[in-house]
Design goal:
The protein is α+β, with helices and mostly antiparallel strands. The chain is 30% helix and 34% strand. The chain contains 5 helices and 6 strands, in the order αβββββααβαα. It has a 6-stranded antiparallel beta barrel, surrounded by 4 helices.
Length: 206
């Protein structure tokens, strides 16, 4: 998390919205084998207090994660910001980015909870795709689904801390922010520029 409080979102629901929309995280934890990270699709609980995911049984983190303190990181768009886009003197280049950190204790899920997680995950993303009828596991052979489910382990993190960072030039003047937005758009970073526009519209600037 960036230490500058200017980069903390004022909207309490924004971090959760980003996690749900991006839907993919890096999961970090310390293990006897050293620090490990896994990358997985995630399901944020309706109350924003839990984060579920699953890992392959052979993943280097899976055998150590139950009961461990874990950190999940969801990353959004990012881009280089040229100092030439600023009007003030003696500036340096930087990087604008979006990241949400969630910390808590992980626990292993039982088989029923793992299957429920898989159903929730696929239903959420199938709804975005909009195919009618959507894919469900009912279209699979139960034996094959069972064999594939046996190859993974489900986990849930009880979130004790949220640490979102939206570093979007909030510490710059309105004119400089506009120049950065224009520069990002010209470089093809439309998503990041759009987020900067949205924050400016809500008055989240210094």
């Amino acid at each position: 998390m960036h230490p500058d409080p200017a980069f903390r979102p004022k909207d309490d629901d924004l971090a959760a919205l980003l996690v749900r929309e991006i839907g993919f995280a890096a999961i970090f934890a310390g293990t006897p084998d050293g620090p490990r990270v896994a990358h997985a699709p995630v399901v944020l609980g309706a109350d924003n207090r839990t984060l579920q995911f699953h890992l392959a049984r052979g993943n280097g983190l899976a055998k150590h994660l139950d009961g461990a303190s874990a950190l999940a990181v969801v990353q959004g768009p990012d881009a280089y910001v040229s100092a030439s886009w600023y009007t003030a003197p003696d500036q340096v280049p930087t990087w604008n980015y979006v990241a949400v950190e969630m910390e808590g204790q992980a626990r292993r899920l039982d088989r029923d909870a793992l299957v429920a997680q898989l159903d929730t995950l696929s239903a959420s993303h199938e709804a975005r795709i909009g195919i009618d009828p959507p894919w469900t596991r009912d279209k699979m052979s139960p034996a094959i689904f069972g064999k594939m489910a046996d190859a993974i382990i489900g986990f849930e993190i009880a979130i004790t801390a949220w640490r979102p960072t939206l570093k979007l030039s909030q510490n710059k003047s309105a004119d400089e922010r506009t120049r950065v937005i224009d520069g990002l758009k010209a470089q093809g970073h439309g998503a990041l520029a759009h987020l900067m526009d949205q924050l400016a519209g809500r008055g989240e600037r210094r």
